[in-house]
């Protein structure tokens, strides 16, 4: 398989960076486009099934989409590798962030923007282990291609066929004994909305005009917001003074990004 738009990032933040660099060099020397951590023999998953989970996510029209990728494991692990796909007709992958991950270790990311696949992993070696936990693996950052919303966004698990015919997929590698566990997958459905959260007057931008619009609506019986959910930036399902305060903080004090509203 030849992919012409691949980006590989090898972390240098952890002691295992040298090991990862050697893996990257070996991959390049072999002409491979993807790394695999699934060299151990697969086994069944006793106990509570390990899980890769992507909760519901939503983004306003034209806004960047941030997709948290979470996991659950009930045994010590030595590595996590995820391979997921997205719709290249409507989305562009920007990056994968490990900033908030609960798993410190050496990291790699391979982005295939033609096939719409993300191959990312974190691994430890020696005595280090990833303990049993429910944690955050990484966050995917995607941009929209300008297709009008609303529309569903699907992030799904997939596989990659390497040169030579080997197929790799999402895998959790247990550290003792050294075996590979193929986790269950849950969720993966999000939404591109037909509005910009916080855009109370529905002009496509969030600015002081939206504050004025909400004040007029709340105190002076002004016109109702064209899209009520857009006028609910604090996500409380009610349009009130708290939404005005939220927007003031956002616009003038770099406060929290407006939330996906639920007012009707």
Structure write-up:
A hairpin with a 5-residue loop joins strand 12 and strand 13 (167-169). This protein has 2 domains: 6-192, Immunoglobulin-like (Sandwich), CATH 2.60.40; 195-264, Dockerin domain (Type 1 dockerin domain). The strands form 4 sheets. Strands 1, 5, 7, 8, 11, 14 and 15 form a 7-stranded antiparallel sheet that branches. The chain has a 5-stranded mixed sheet with strand order 6-9-4-2-16, with no helix packed on it. Strands 3-17-10 form a 3-stranded mixed sheet, with no helix packed on it. With 264 residues, it is of the alpha+beta class. The protein is built from 3 helices and 17 strands. The protein is elongated, with a radius of gyration of 22 Å. It has helices at residues 17-29, 208-220, 241-253; strands spanning 6-10, 51-54, 57-59, 65-73, 77-85, 91-97, 106-112, 117-123, 133-144, 151-154, 156-157, 159-161, 167-169, 171-175, 178-181, 184-187, 189-192.
Give the termini distance in whole angstroms: 49 Å
Largest sheet: 7 strands, antiparallel
Strand content: 25-35%
CATH architecture of the largest domain: Sandwich
Which runs of at least 5 residues are low in confidence (pLDDT < 50)? 1-31
Whole-number count of domains: 2
In N-to-C order, the SSE pattern is EHEEEEEEEEEEEEEEEEHH
Quaternary state of this entry equals single chain
The helix-and-strand class reads alpha+beta
Mean pLDDT: 82
- The outline comes out as elongated
Amount of helix: 10-25%
Per DSSP E runs of 2 or more residues, the count of β-strands stands at: 17
């Amino acid at each position: 398989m030849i992919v012409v738009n691949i980006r590989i990032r090898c972390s240098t933040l952890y002691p295992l960076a040298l090991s990862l660099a050697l893996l990257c060099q070996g991959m390049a020397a072999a002409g491979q486009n993807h790394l695999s951590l699934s060299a151990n023999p697969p086994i069944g998953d006793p106990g509570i099934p390990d899980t890769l989970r992507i909760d519901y996510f939503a983004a306003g029209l034209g806004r960047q989409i941030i997709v948290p990728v979470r996991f659950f494991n009930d045994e010590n692990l030595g590595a996590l590798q995820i391979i997921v796909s997205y719709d290249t007709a409507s989305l562009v992958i920007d990056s994968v962030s490990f900033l908030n991950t609960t798993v410190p270790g050496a990291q790699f990311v391979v982005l295939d923007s033609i096939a719409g696949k993300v191959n990312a992993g974190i691994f430890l070696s020696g005595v280090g282990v990833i303990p049993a936990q429910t944690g955050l693996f990484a966050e995917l950052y995607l941009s929209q291609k300008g297709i009008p919303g609303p529309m569903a966004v699907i992030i799904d698990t997939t596989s990659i066929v390497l040169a030579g015919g080997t197929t790799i997929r999402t895998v959790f590698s247990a550290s003792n004994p050294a075996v590979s566990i193929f986790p269950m997958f849950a969720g993966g459905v999000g939404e591109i909305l037909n509005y910009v959260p916080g855009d109370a007057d529905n002009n496509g931008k969030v600015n002081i005009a939206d504050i004025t619009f909400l004040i007029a609506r709340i105190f002076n019986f002004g016109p109702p917001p064209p899209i009520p959910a857009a006028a609910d930036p604090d996500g409380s399902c009610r349009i009130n003074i708290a939404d005005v305060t939220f927007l003031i903080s956002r616009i003038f004090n770099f406060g929290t990004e407006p939330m996906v509203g639920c007012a009707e």
